[in-house]
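Working notes for the structural subgroup meeting. M.R. asked for a predicted model of this chain before we commit to crystallization trials. I am recording the input and output together here so anyone reviewing the notebook later can reproduce the run.

Input as submitted:
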Amino acid sequence: MEDRAQRTRLKAISLSFVVGVLLMALKFYIYHITRSAAVLSDALESIVNVIASAFALWSIYLAAKPPDPEHPYGHGKVEYFSAGFEGALIVVAALGIFWSAWQQIRRPHPLPNLDLGLWLVLGTSAVNGALGLFLITVGRRTRSLPLVADGKHIMTDCLSSLAVVLGLVLVKLSGWYWVDGAVAALVGGQILFSGRSLLKESFAGLMDASDPQLLEEISHLLSRNRKNLWIDIHRLRAWRSGRHIYVDFHLILPRYLPLVEAHREVAELENLFRVHFKGAAEVFIHIDPCQDPNCPICSVAQCASRSHPKSQSTFWNHGHLTTRD
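Returned structure, recorded in token form:
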């Protein structure tokens, strides 16, 4: 199953790279025939697309390698580095776009072959839109951050191209050539915002920032499958490394439970995660024996060690399971 998913990731990112190279060449040709600053801004972003796709291809290949003595938790975090690298490239491209935009605003010049350029830019936008949606869909299905990041960036490129088309239409209708530079500046600002988002996501992953969506998913999983013997859970933590998910928490079991039975409960929980995350989860469970303060929430029907009757219920939501106590 995972081998098939990995082949799908590699095919998708390879397609992104090949299409990116072709579109980049086409956009620079459009700039050559139109001398438009807005088209140049679109072409400069395409350079980032190509470099980012090549880097994402490498990171997807590396992230799939199994853990080794030097990397006991695998190589998955390279995917966050890939997303950060792409974000940094976008920022650099934005600076180049601002420069070309300012030149056109300061000294506007006519744009030849505008009709042909408009149709060609519109065509590149359609191709990028389809490619971006494809990459995001495949990335989410195969749990690949580089694919999703590349897809979002390409969707940004698609929107940039549409903005360029609208700007060139306005130039054609009005004859205001400075609008070409203004549109280029707007495109630069838009991709700068996109780069900031990618950098933020990358830093969060590299710093093992809390993932509320993942914790909520785990909380629902545990709550749906809760057993009376599992008195309570706390100190839940979870983080992603590539496609792999690492989870650890403390499980409170009855203090009279034999070690063999306690181990059986742990194995059942581990299998629960293994099935839900399709073999991509590693779970570390610390067993705590119940204490008298746990009696009011304990649902074990017959317990010789009980000192207080059950008097309250706990809800295994995100907030409760992540408590330190």
